[in-house]
TrEMBL record:
InterPro entries (UniProt xref): AAA+_ATPase, ABC_transporter-like_ATP-bd, P-loop_NTPase
GO cellular component: membrane
Organism taxonomic ancestry: Bacteria, Pseudomonadati, Bacteroidota, Flavobacteriia, Flavobacteriales
ABC transporter domain: residues covered: 7-236
Keyword check for Transmembrane helix: yes
Membrane topology reported for the UniProt record: Multi-pass membrane protein
Name recorded for this polypeptide: ABC transporter ATP-binding protein
PANTHER family, alphabetized: ABC TRANSPORTER G FAMILY MEMBER 20 ISOFORM X1, ATP-BINDING CASSETTE, SUB-FAMILY H, MEMBER 1
Length: 242
């Protein structure tokens, strides 16, 4: 049986005046896949992600996310995805409990569901003793793991992670990726941007964007074979240099 595509993109383009930020990209992402979306700053990956999550309208091209059209069904897309940004994922001036309650409400959960999910989350993450502490008092690694868990609170089909492990220590990064694997194992599709090339190795497939275009897309193993190297960092550097 053919694996279901939960993201389908064809010729997707975004222009700002005469500048083409995303240039006719085409790809698909399968259900339960960990899909790495790589590129240097300014390559267009964040702009592309914004179109996919329904907060920026494409200039041209086609795209469906969780079966919904990015032009006409953005509200349906938002209900079926989770999103975690490196820069803004939780409210520092709210407690752990208040953050979970707030985002549970945003994602449309009932009070009963929120209470149940909150109990499960703080237990799983070992945050029972700090449930009533401000998020600002937590170490960055705990914040990131909590933010990821909150993005999954409504059991979305797809979770978009924008540089989720930026600035955290190697041990926390490894723990975070264990959480990603666990979510993918349960059938959640993970769409992740990262500038850590070693993390590309953890993905089922990766695309590499250069100047608004996808210049390579395959499994890490096949990309390393194609570019005759044992390092994804070398693959990236070769593509970036043209």
């Amino acid at each position: 049986m053919k694996t279901q595509n939960v993201i389908q993109v064809e010729g997707l383009t975004k222009m700002f005046g005469d500048f083409t930020a995303v240039n006719a990209i085409t790809f698909e992402v399968k259900k339960g896949e960990i899909f790495g979306f790589l590129g240097a700053n300014g390559a267009g990956k964040t702009t592309a992600m914004k179109m996919l999550i329904g907060i920026s309208s494409p200039t041209s091209g086609l795209a469906k996310v969780a079966g919904f059209d990015v032009y006409k069904e953005t509200e349906s897309i938002k209900k079926n995805i989770g999103y975690m940004s490196q820069k803004f994922a939780l409210y520092d001036d709210l407690t752990v409990k208040e953050n979970i309650t707030f985002f549970g409400g945003i994602y449309g959960l009932s009070k009963k569901q929120i209470n149940q999910k909150r109990s499960e989350l703080v237990e799983e993450l070992g945050l029972v003793d700090v449930t009533n502490s401000l998020v600002s008092s937590l170490p960055l690694g705990w914040k990131q793991k909590l933010a990821f868990s909150v993005s999954l609170i409504h059991n979305p089909k797809i979770v978009f992670l924008d540089e989720p492990t930026g600035g955290v220590d190697p041990i926390t990064r490894r723990q975070f990726w264990e959480m990603i694997y666990n979510a993918a194992h349960k059938g959640t599709t993970i769409f992740v941007t990262t500038h850590y090339m070693d993390e590309a190795e953890y993905c089922d497939r990766v695309s590499i964007m250069v100047n608004g275009k996808i210049e390579a897309l395959d499994t890490p193993k096949k990309l390393k074979e194609q570019y005759k190297t044992d390092s994804m960092n070398d693959v990236f550097l070769k593509l970036a240099r043209g």
